[in-house]
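Morning!

This is the sequence you dropped in the shared folder:
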Amino acid sequence: MNRDGKSDLYYTVFGLEGLTALQHELPSRTQQFLESFGDGEHLDLVHLCCLARCWSALNQSGPELA
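The structure's back. Tokens below.
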């Protein structure tokens, strides 16, 4: 979540990487959250990279990114 308490791709990357480092199970709702961004066509470069990193953390390729 970002500073306003809303889910955000930028902060999601850090959450997923932290959970992975601690060998903790990733939240099941993460995939649904990532799918809401589709192929990332409407994201800026920073958030597009975050989307790719999040899919990588889930060990899935996700959709082909824009």
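Headline: The CA atoms of residues 34 and 59 lie 13 Å apart.

More detail when I'm at my desk.
O.
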